[in-house]
């Protein structure tokens, strides 16, 4: 028994349960039946059908009974998906900021931060949902299909419409669409199917399946063609019943890893500055007296109090500025939406993405291994009948006749179609003949055999069609005709023709005597755009290698016509090189051979896999095109597997990109599109890192050095307008890079730090000029924002004298106030409580608002005046800095998105619109402010000294609330419009913008970004592909320049990672697509018990219309 199983290629799954048929197939009791163990006749009887298939009426009844052939779709809760966009480290930091806000009873900031989180999540949810819908709509045309015999005719239908009892045709390259039992003569073991069921059993090799055997949904047909009857569909299939095996993966997409790294650096930077602020505010000692003439004693640097409520803890409130402003909260949205919208755009251009990370990898691809037929050529064969080589005793007409008869009836194979259509008598050739049997092509044997029978006399002969060397090797007269045939093959090859051999044998013997009938030349012309496309690949730094199963001479001739290098080798050279046998100039090992070669001919599937593997080991990101089931391993192994138009379902399932348009130009279009997507993501990554450093350094330094605070309200608005506008980058007009892309995080962080520090310097200089000098007052007559003590004393002295608040009674000007350390001298100003507006109401002992605090504290009028003026000027300065930070920050996008002058590099309309909208809003906010919001916790109203430096009232400050001196309220981060200073902010931002391009070029030179330094010195940048010269030298003596291995960085992916990411995109019970034909997820190891009952079905009598119904066994 074991020997027979081994001979038939049966596996543990095939034999499981075979020893106890009574227990596995309880047909007598009507409970269970194991379709593996019963005969075809019994199976057809249980299914209530025959081998002729179902009628349309019967199919409709069964479709109502069993439902569609798919797993139940598990519905994701849209609300939970929405909340998921707020479940990442960056959002966690924002949520922590919201908690700090509510602890401080700062409801406004709390609401704003939450609004920012929800706004970000909403944009992500909507944009990605729309992109996902667009991709699904385009991929619906690629849904799995099946050939079914319906109403006595073979029809192509969607696999979802199959029902138990349907008779289908499965052939090489198909993915089995349902659980099936093979039809045919159960005693015939001459032409088995080769079925790959590794997804179920983990077995690495395909197994043989004969008539009467079963095959499960999701298996791949590797060889052969057979009719089969469907016995289980949808949830009743082995996959559907093995629900416990459906396991989601936790693979993390590459873009998520990049975002995590960038986010980590940003969070670390934010954390460091928060710790610095806390240390300086509360722990860094500073020696100074608390009273004018007191001895020196240690005190804390700024010594702020910290209590709950608005304005109660300036330090923690300012930490919110660092957290909210420094976190790139929009990064997950911008990058993921950019990727999703880019993938949708690629789909519209004919390249459907099966795995999102493939977009990044396609952008970084440096070598493309392309098949010849159908990709470089038209795959529209024609026969040159004038140059046919007939065998002895045959004419050219005989060769055409037998070639047509050798084709499979109703076949859609290109070779079969051209052979039939090229024969003039094709309409009547089957009048007295029939094709009794057909052995299909497989990539290992490389031939087909058709059995032609004459029903009149019962005579049969066989026709062999295939690779000329194979047909010649099988011919009985090989020695006699070998030289002529080989010479003709070479002649055809030199003209770019493919050769097809035909042989004939009488009888139906399994070991017949073949007679050579003739040699046909087949011509497949190159595509009209391929030559130009290859030139574009070279310009973009991509080396194109031809990997073809055709003869070497054909491959070299096509390469010559297309302007490709002709330094090609046969796989024999490759095999010897792997064994260490190399006789090529300049080549030391097999790695160098593969890297140097322009291509390989006479390639088998295992060679494609080896070529890809070797190039990857040399550090290249490799793309591989393919269309057949034999290409699947190489497609899966490649960094970017590309299934060309018309590829088999097996090839599509293994590929990362599926093309819906024919030709290499579609691949290049996809590569350029991928590079544009990458450029957009890279632009935002550089921008967001620069902004994190800019916000942290700018407001961290101003707080630590100057004890100056910025409002959380403005930083939230900055994030809303500027980061929200960055969504426009997902549709920005960009130029693809000239070289393969990769995530160079070191360059991103380095340039981000440089830009951030430079912009921080611009803001600090503006702060210093405005707050520590009178430049703007003296030069352009704007209100003075100078906050130096001497300036404030001077202004207050003049104002108090003008108001008549001077007195002849000398007294101390004030109790020592750290805010005004220079105002400690004896002055002539009376107590602030004596000012009528601040003192008790006339005729009453009831104090004015705030007088209870001022009176009795010894606060002089000059100190209250300085407090109001300092607060007033700082509030206006905040608006000025907000506008300047907003403009100069978002303007960095235009610098990092272009390699040349940013002012002359045209961006997308949406990018410009987003910028001007955001900065218009910032300008309006800066101009008008918020009427002094946040109001000081301890305030005086109306404040008489809260005036512009010229003496007039501020037109946009009508609240007239100012802080009381000697309180923490002096540090309230209030906002008052800066009026004409908004023009200063625009001019200042523009002046500091101009050096950004030279800084960018300097950094590009230092980092040699995209080969910038190499081009400056006239060198060829690394990674750039080199076109070989077409010179007539033997291929063994020519060596092309070695392509440079790119810095793969974070783009390198293993096959397991790729598969896990692809699986992650289709949730358990997800929609049926060509990558997920049964709507299933990945499967873990199958248990022995499940294997034993894999084909067991429950039979229930008394179904609809008295028919039986089938359900999967438990």
Automatic annotation (TrEMBL):
Residues 34-106 form the Cation-transporting P-type ATPase N-terminal domain. Residues 1-30, 1028-1114 are annotated as: Disordered. The chain crosses the membrane at residues 96-118, 262-284, 329-347, 708-729, 749-771, 879-897, 909-930, 974-994. It holds the Pfam family Hydrolase. Residues 1-23 have a biased composition (Basic and acidic residues). GO terms for biological process: proton export across plasma membrane. Keywords: ATP-binding, Cell membrane, Hydrogen ion transport, Ion transport, Magnesium, Membrane, Metal-binding, Nucleotide-binding, Phosphoprotein, Translocase, Transmembrane, Transmembrane helix, Transport. This is Plasma membrane ATPase. It comes from Symbiochloris irregularis. One of its GO terms (cellular component) is plasma membrane. GO terms for molecular function: ATP binding; ATP hydrolysis activity; metal ion binding; P-type proton-exporting transporter activity.
């Amino acid at each position: 028994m074991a020997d027979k199983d081994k001979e038939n290629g049966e596996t543990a799954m095939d034999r499981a349960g075979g020893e106890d048929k009574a227990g596995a197939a309880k047909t007598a009791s009507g409970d269970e039946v194991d379709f593996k163990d019963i005969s075809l006749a019994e199976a057809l009887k249980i299914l209530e059908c025959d081998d002729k298939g179902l009628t349309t009426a019967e199919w409709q009844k069964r479709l109502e009974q069993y439902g569609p052939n798919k797993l139940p779709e598990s519905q994701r809760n849209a609300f939970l998906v929405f909340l998921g966009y707020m479940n990442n480290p960056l959002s966690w930091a924002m949520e922590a900021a919201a908690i700090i806000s509510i602890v401080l009873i700062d409801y406004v900031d709390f609401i704003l931060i939450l609004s920012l989180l929800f706004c970000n999540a909403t944009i992500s949810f909507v944009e990605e949902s729309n992109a996902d819908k667009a991709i699904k709509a385009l991929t619906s045309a690629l849904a799995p299909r099946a050939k079914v015999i319906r109403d006595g005719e073979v029809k192509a239908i969607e696999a979802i419409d199959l029902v138990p009892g349907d008779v289908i045709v499965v052939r090489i390259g198909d993915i089995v669409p349902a659980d099936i039992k093979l039809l045919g003569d159960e005693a015939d073991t001459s032409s088995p199917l080769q079925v790959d069921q590794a997804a179920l059993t983990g077995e690495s090799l395909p197994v043989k399946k004969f008539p009467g055997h079963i095959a499960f949904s999701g298996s791949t047909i590797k060889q052969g063609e057979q009719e089969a009857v469907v016995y289980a569909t949808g949830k009743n299939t082995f996959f559907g019943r093995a629900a416990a095996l459906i396991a989601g993966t936790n693979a993390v997409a590459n873009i998520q890893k990049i975002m995590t790294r960038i986010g980590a650096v940003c969070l670390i930077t934010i954390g460091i500055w928060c710790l610095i602020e806390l240390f300086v505010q509360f722990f860094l000692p500073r020696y100074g007296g608390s009273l004018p003439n007191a001895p020196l004693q240690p005190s804390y640097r700024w010594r702020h109090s910290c209590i709950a409520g608005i304005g109660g803890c300036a330090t923690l409130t300012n930490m919110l500025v660092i957290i909210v402003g420094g976190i790139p909260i929009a990064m997950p949205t911008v990058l993921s939406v950019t990727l999703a919208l880019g993938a949708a755009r690629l789909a519209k251009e004919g390249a459907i993405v099966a795995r999102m990370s493939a977009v990044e990898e396609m952008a970084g691809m440096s070598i493309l291994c392309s098949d010849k037929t159908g990709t470089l050529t038209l795959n529209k064969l024609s026969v040159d009948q004038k140059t046919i080589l007939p065998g002895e005793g045959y004419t050219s007409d005989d060769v055409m006749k037998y070639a047509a008869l050798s084709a499979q009836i109703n076949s859609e194979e290109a070779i079969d179609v051209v052979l039939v259509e090229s024969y003039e008598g094709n309409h009547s050739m089957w009048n007295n003949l029939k094709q009794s049997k057909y052995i299909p092509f497989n990539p290992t044997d490389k031939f087909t055999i058709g059995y032609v029978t004459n029903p009149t006399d019962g005579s049969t002969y066989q026709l062999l069609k295939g690779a000329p060397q194979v047909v010649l090797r099988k011919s009985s007269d090989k020695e006699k005709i070998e030289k002529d045939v080989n010479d003709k093959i070479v002649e055809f090859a030199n003209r770019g023709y493919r050769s097809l051999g035909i042989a004939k044998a009488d009888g139906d013997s399994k070991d017949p005597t073949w007679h050579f009938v003739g040699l046909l030349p087949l011509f497949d012309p190159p595509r009209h755009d391929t030559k130009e496309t290859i030139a574009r690949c070279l310009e973009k730094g991509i080396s194109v290698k031809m990997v073809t199963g055709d003869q070497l001479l054909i491959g070299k001739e096509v390469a010559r016509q297309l302007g490709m290098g002709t330094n090609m080798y046969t796989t024999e050279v490759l095999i010897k090189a792997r064994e260490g046998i190399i006789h090529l100039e300049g080549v030391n090992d097999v790695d160098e051979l593969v890297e140097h070669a322009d291509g390989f001919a006479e390639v088998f599937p295992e060679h494609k896999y080896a070529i890809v593997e070797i190039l990857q080991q040399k550090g290249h990101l490799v793309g591989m095109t393919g269309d057949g089931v034999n290409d699947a391993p190489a497609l899966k192994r490649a960094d970017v597997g590309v299934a060309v138009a018309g590829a088999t379902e097996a090839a599509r399932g293994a590929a990362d990109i599926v093309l819906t348009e024919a030709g290499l130009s579609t691949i290049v279009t996809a590569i350029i599109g991928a590079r544009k997507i990458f450029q957009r993501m890279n632009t935002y990554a550089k921008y967001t890192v620069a902004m994190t450093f800019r916000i942290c350094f700018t407001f961290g330094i101003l707080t630590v050095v100057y004890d100056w605070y910025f409002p959380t309200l403005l930083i939230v608005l900055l994030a809303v307008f500027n980061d929200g506008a960055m969504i426009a980058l997902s549709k920005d007009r960009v130029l693809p890079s000239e070289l393969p892309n990769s995530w160079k995080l070191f360059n991103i962080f380095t340039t981000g730090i440089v830009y951030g520090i430079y912009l921080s310097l611009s803001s600090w200089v503006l702060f210093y000029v405005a707050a520590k000098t009178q430049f703007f007052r003296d030069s352009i007559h704007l209100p003075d924002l100078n906050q130096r003590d001497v300036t404030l004393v001077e202004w207050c002295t003049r104002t108090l004298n003008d108001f008549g608040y001077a007195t002849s009674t000398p007294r101390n000007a004030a109790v020592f106030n750290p805010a005004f350390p220079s105002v400690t001298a004896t002055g002539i100003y009376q107590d602030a409580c004596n000012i009528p507006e601040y003192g008790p109401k006339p005729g009453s002992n009831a104090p004015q608002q705030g007088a209870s605090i001022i009176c009795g504290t010894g606060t002089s009028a000059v100190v209250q005046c300085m407090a109001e003026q300092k607060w007033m000027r700082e509030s206006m300065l905040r608006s000025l800095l907000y506008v300047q930070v907003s403009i100069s920050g978002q303007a960095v996008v235009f610098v990092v998105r272009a390699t040349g002058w940013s002012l002359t590099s045209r961006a997308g309309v949406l990018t410009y619109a987003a910028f001007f909208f955001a900065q218009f809003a910032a300008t309006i906010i800066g101009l008008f402010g918020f009427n002094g919001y946040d109001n000081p916790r301890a305030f005086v109203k109306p404040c008489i000294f809260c005036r512009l430096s010229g003496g007039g009232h501020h037109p946009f400050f009508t609240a007239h609330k100012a802080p009381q001196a000697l309180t923490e309220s002096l540090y309230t981060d209030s906002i008052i419009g800066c009026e004409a200073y908004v023009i200063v902010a625009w001019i200042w931002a523009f002046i500091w913008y101009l050096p950004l391009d030279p800084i960018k070029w300097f950094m590009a030179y230092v980092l040699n970004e995209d080969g910038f330094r190499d081009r400056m010195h006239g060198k060829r940048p690394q990674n750039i592909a080199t076109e070989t010269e077409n010179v007539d030298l033997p291929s063994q003596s020519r060596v092309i320049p070695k392509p440079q291995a790119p810095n793969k960085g974070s783009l390198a992916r293993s096959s397991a990672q790729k598969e896990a990411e692809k699986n992650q995109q289709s949730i358990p019970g997800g929609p049926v697509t060509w990558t997920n034909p049964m709507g299933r997820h990945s499967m873990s190891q199958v248990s022995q018990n499940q294997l034993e009952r894999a084909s067991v079905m429950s039979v229930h009598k008394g179904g609809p219309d008295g028919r039986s119904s089938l359900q999967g066994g438990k």
